[in-house]
Amino acid sequence: MTAQPNSITAHSEITVPSKPSLKRQISVDANDLQSKLEAHQKRIYPPLAKKSMRRLTSAEVSKFLGIHEGYLRQLAAEGKAPLPEVQPNGRRTYAIEEMNVLREFLEGTKSPRRYVPHRGEGEKLQILSVINFKGGSAKTTTASHLVQYLALKGYRVLAIDLDPQASLSTMFGHQPLLDVGYNETLYGALRYDDERVGVEQIIRSTYLPGLHLIPGNLELMEFETTTPKADDVALFYTRITEALQPVAEHYDIVVMDCPPNLGFLAMAALCAATSLLITIHPQMLDVLSMAQFLRMTGDTLEILSNAGAKEDYDWMGYLITRYEPSDTPQNQMVGYLRSIFGPRVLQNPVLKSTAIADAGLTKQTLYEVDRSKFHKGTYDRAMESIDLANGEIEALIRSAWGRQ
Ligand SMILES: Nc1ncnc2c1ncn2[C@@H]1O[C@H](COP(=O)(O)OP(=O)(O)OP(=O)(O)O)[C@@H](O)[C@H]1O
Ligand SMILES: [Mg+2]
């Protein structure tokens, strides 16, 4: 009989809960969700697993070197070029480093063509902001494919994750909570107190030669809270340009993946940029949101210009993303955008594709995934549209350097 009072006590402890605070519940939900997501991430992508780049086919190497596949075969037949061994299956595949050795070899031949595209004297560092405050407009997908494409084409590229959500960092295998510590985001090089570090200390190499990364995490939010309190608040817009100065000569192109808002960080990115890429999903609500974004950006840039902010952009482009050619309202919207913005809308939209979405689920780009894992037609269509859009952006960058 002694058990009864105890069980009543235990029961009453459980059934008389204090009134739950929903405010507190948000943090509880956040913790629950975060720990479940982390566990899920660890399962699909263990923290100690290092991402690596697969070997490239001859067709891909020809594409990234800008040579005909027949020329590659001719080089193999002549036996003078440094090529990797043929695989047991009779095919020749290339590690990126091996492709780059071949690139250097071609650059050293008597051909007047340039194969190593690094910028030269008088060609200024290109700083490209991928921006739009509409969430989910494919900024990160665009930025991650673009930086990999540019690195594979032989440029020296720095990718900067400016989004506290850190999706770009995750794409590159850096998990914001596990792998990115105190002062290891760009905030470390922007902060206003004496804990500021040089940008060289926060740049990481990636598994892709020629591509470096400054990762992001929630720490970036501190720029939003510390900037209004800073002594030199009026000069926040020069912050990123100044931070990048010491490493500028090591890169040809910097690509910043911006957060989906127009806070101080995004404004500093707008001011540091030499060009803007505005990603847009061609649907009414997204375009309405972009109209607001353009109005606010225009007003902000005007105020900052009056306060002495930098010169003009080299170019700006609207990139249509997640485009479905068979969707009539989307087509009307694209026509509408082209009629208003003219040539600033890039010719080549990026198609909506399950290949891009599926690759994203495993934190990979189309350049990383194995084509054989996809339906070939689906992969090839998506890859072609990504390559064409990236090629058009590369051409804009080159024309800013005065090249053909
Ligand atoms: N071309 C595409 N085809 C199919 N899915 C796509 C395509 N581009 C992007 N997506 C998917 O759309 C979602 C949003 O893309 P992404 O994260 O790149 O947008 P974002 O603008 O960076 O978002 P945020 O504003 O939250 O930073 C992702 O799940 C991504 O995989
Ligand atoms: Mg993003």
Give a written overview of the molecule.
This protein is an alpha/beta fold. The protein has 15 helices and seven strands. It has a seven-stranded mixed β-sheet, sandwiched between helices. The radius of gyration is 24 Å and the shape is globular. The N and C termini lie far apart (93 Å). It binds adenosine-5'-triphosphate and magnesium ion. Adenosine-5'-triphosphate (ATP) binds at residues 135-141, 163, 167, 260, 321-322, 350, 352-353, 356-357, 360.
Indicate the topology.
Layout: H1 3-15, H2 22-44, H3 58-65, H4 69-78, H5 96-107, E1 126-131, H6 139-152, E2 157-161, H7 167-171, H8 187-190, E3 204-205, E4 211-214, H9 222-226, H10 239-244, E5 253-257, H11 264-272, E6 275-280, H12 284-306, E7 315-320, H13 328-341, H14 354-361, H15 376-400
Parallel strand pairs: 1-5, 1-6, 2-4, 2-5, 6-7
Antiparallel strand pairs: 3-4
The protein binds adenosine-5'-triphosphate and magnesium ion (MG).
What's the quick description here?
This protein has helices at residues 3-15, 22-44, 58-65, 69-78, 96-107, 139-152, 167-171, 187-190, 222-226, 239-244, 264-272, 284-306, 328-341, 354-361, 376-400, and strands at residues 126-131, 157-161, 204-205, 211-214, 253-257, 275-280, 315-320. The chain has 404 residues and is of the alpha/beta class.
Q: Remind me, CATH topology of the largest domain?
A: Rossmann fold
Rg value: 24 Å
Helical segment count: 15
Q: For the record, what is the CATH homologous superfamily label of the largest domain?
A: P-loop containing nucleotide triphosphate hydrolases
CATH architectural group of the largest domain: 3-Layer(aba) Sandwich
Structural class: alpha/beta
- Give the tally of structural domains: 2
What is the average of the pLDDT values? 90
Which regions have little confidence, pLDDT < 50, spanning 5+ residues?
1-10
Listed once per kind, the bound small molecules are: adenosine-5'-triphosphate, magnesium ion
Largest sheet: 7 strands, mixed
Give the topology string: H per helix, E per strand.
Answer: HHHHHEHEHHEEHHEHEHEHHH
- The CATH class label of the largest domain is Alpha Beta
Instruction: Kindly state the percentage of residues in helix.
Output: 40-55%
How far the N terminus sits from the C terminus, by CA atoms, comes to: 93 Å
